[in-house]
Fold this sequence. Notes:
Layout: E1 26-33, H1 38-49, E2 54-60, E3 65-70, H2 77-85, E4 90-91, H3 100-136, H4 158-174, H5 183-201, H6 203-214, H7 220-240, H8 243-246, H9 256-280, H10 282-289, E5 294-299, E6 302-307, E7 316-319, E8 329-334, E9 336-339, H11 341-344, E10 350-352, E11 357-358, E12 363-366, E13 369-373, H12 381-393, H13 400-428, H14 433-447, H15 451-470, E14 473-475, H16 478-484, E15 489-492, H17 494-498, E16 504-510, H18 517-528, H19 534-545, E17 555-559, E18 563-568, E19 571-576, H20 578-583, H21 592-600, E20 604-610, E21 613-621, H22 628-637, E22 641-645, H23 650-660, E23 664-666, H24 671-683, E24 688-692, H25 698-703, E25 706-710, H26 715-720, E26 723-725, H27 731-766, H28 770-773, H29 779-798
Parallel strand pairs: 15-22, 15-24, 22-23, 24-25, 25-26
Antiparallel strand pairs: 1-3, 1-4, 2-3, 5-6, 5-7, 7-13, 8-11, 8-13, 9-10, 9-12, 14-26, 16-21, 17-18, 18-19, 19-20, 20-21
Helix pairs in contact: 1-13, 3-5, 3-9, 5-9, 6-7, 7-9, 7-14, 9-29, 13-14, 13-15, 14-27, 14-29, 15-27, 15-29, 16-27, 18-19, 22-27, 27-29
Amino acid sequence: MTTGIENQPNAGQTQGSAATEAGSSRQIVLPxxxxxxxxxxxxxxxALSATPGVRDASVNVMLSNxxxxxxPAATTPAQLVEAVRATGYGAELPASGLTAxxxxxxxxxxxxxxxxxxxxxxxVSGGLGLTAMLLSMPLMAPMSAGAPGGAPHGSADPLxxxxxxxxxxAVEAVLPWLYQLDRRVILAALLAATAAVMGWAGRHFxxxxxxxxxxxxxxxxxxxxxxxxAAFLYSLVATFAPGVFLSRxxxxxxxxxxxxxIIALILVGNALEARAKRQTSAALRKLIALxxxxxxxxxxxxxxxxxxxxxxxxxxxxxxxxxxxxVDGEVVAGASAVDESMLTGxxxxxxxxxxxxxxGGTINRSGAFQLxxxxxxxxxxxxxxxxxxxxxxxSRAPIQRLADRISGVFVPxxxxxxxxxxxxxxxxxxxxxxxxxxxxxxxxxxIACPCAMGLAVPTAVMxxxxxxxxxxxxxxxxxxxxxxxxxxxxxxxxxxxxxxxRPALTDVVLLDRTRTEAEVLRxxxxxxxxxxxxxxxxxxxxxxxxxxxxxxxxxxxTTAGLGxxxxxxxxxxxxxxxxxxxxxxxxxxxxxxxxxxLTADGKTPLYLNLNGTVAALLAVADPVKPxxxxxxxxxxxxxxxxxxxxxDHPGTAAAIxxxxxxxxxxxxxxxxxxxxxxxxxxxSGQVVAMVGDGVNDAPALAKADVGIxxxxxxxxxxxxxxxxxxxGDLRSVAQAIHVSRRTMRTMKQNLFWAFIYxxxxxxxxxxxxxxxxxxxxxxxxxxxxxALSSVSVVTNSLRLRRLRAA
Length: 806
């Protein structure tokens, strides 16, 4: 088995150096810090796209990075870093010398640290929030009939007022001393607790909001900071200058406990979101976990355990049963069966003998062997797969553009709506307009969530590409995912795609009954063993499979276009086509019905002449893969048209098409003709996928809307493809399309709920339901809804991890 990415150009480069040269273009991946929502992402992307020399920029808030394609003659990586920093976010040049595996490990550690910190802050804030609620209850003891909306003195939040009114009697019965505390002591304690939470647990909301303000922008942090900050300032005035409210007939109520609980709930949402984000890259972590940390190396005749980093090319490495193969290499001694499902998705172990390739991270199921180390570090197959997956997860799907456009104006619009809400309540509310307007404005600021829109597409792309990799499918990014779900036609190359790609002896028809099949096969293979023709190799391979002992020819000659002849064990042998037999004066016209039958099945007949008699008829063909017919049936069941496109003879192509159930065949086409056929299909309005594995397929793969390269094929085909199948099984094509369709459905669901949440939530927070139903949303409930919106989007994307085979 070959993986199809050995010696792949650029595949071994680290993401740190990041750079793929394409003409005068260069690509670099910049770590970006401080991004929290879609508005942040959109701002950084606009800044990078506006930088002279930048051809394309893709910013990913999930991975906290920006992938930039630029002209090195017009700009430099340092200037790109400065462009990001000018927006108020942190950026730095990528670390050099790190493999994609090392970078993924570093990212996983950073995400784990972020989750632990957010969890700690959420727990502490939640505890202080409950304490603040208890401390606030004595403030409600002297009930005031003039309190707005029936809310008790001390509670400005309608939800808190309702809860405290019902809980306060029970608390007073259990903690009577609490109700004997001086009001000023309680307010001081609440003020101190709120300041502590804002200054520690919620500090990043305010620092990031201030940074955004200094750079003339706004994001999610702005909404949180303005909402909670305004509530805190309101409470400060009520605490130190209550006369301001009393002189206007209002009670000097405070929002301290509401501010703490709002921050706590947002932090709970952020922690759950961070945990869910980590789960989106679970497939990558599984791959990386397969890489052993040490290898058992033979040095000076002794076995020593060395860190993987110290293994060098050419080292002999010992692998015992049950162990993971530590590095890529070639078997030099021993034999075994190796589980390569981590690469191909194929569950059956692959037999390994001397000269067989093995790959780091695969599992040695039985037998011990020694390998010679070949590709190490960033050049290893595992590192290349990790890099391809990281690149794919950092890409953007076109459907994200709608969310980006909305995110670019979202926060300013919400700020304007909050001001309009306050003004409307102030002018129209029949009682306590200032307090009600203030609570509604804070609720609008808190409930608005650009995060969900920013996470809707990237989370789905990350989970889907990881899940596809488990099936042995490498999808190069969000754009390929999106295009694949819209396919109308799947065009298949024949050789190596539908068929095995190597000739095999399929038939041995005995004509001389005095000889056995094994005898004629041994004699034919003995003479063909001196030939380099692919048909000869097929005959020799069958004889070796049957364990036949071949003899050295006593004489041998080959005639181009006819066949081969010689003497083996005293038997005069000639093997070739009908013209070859005519050279020996043999008439084979009586065999035409049999040869026509073989030719109709796409097979090439060979005549075997032994001592002047046609003793057997052999047939060689490129056999159809066992799964091709099933795979094509699946594609047709998915309402896809299937076309066989090949350079082979029309008769052979038609025979193969009949075997696999393809109705439309285009044969005898040169590479440039394949491109023209793809273009013709596209011109008819169809979205076309091309599946191939050869060098001659690369132009057609590049021309198609979705190029699907068989991983058993050439590196050039791999480079041209948008999707790579790590095993030569056409069923993976149907699986890739199935993953694409489910992913697009999930993306659309995520975007729908992200938009609907804001479209419905903001008006409700503003109080549109109050005139008819008396419903006014509490800022605390708004914060809970805001936290839940992001978590729900990520959780919906995580459902893709449960995808099963199509």
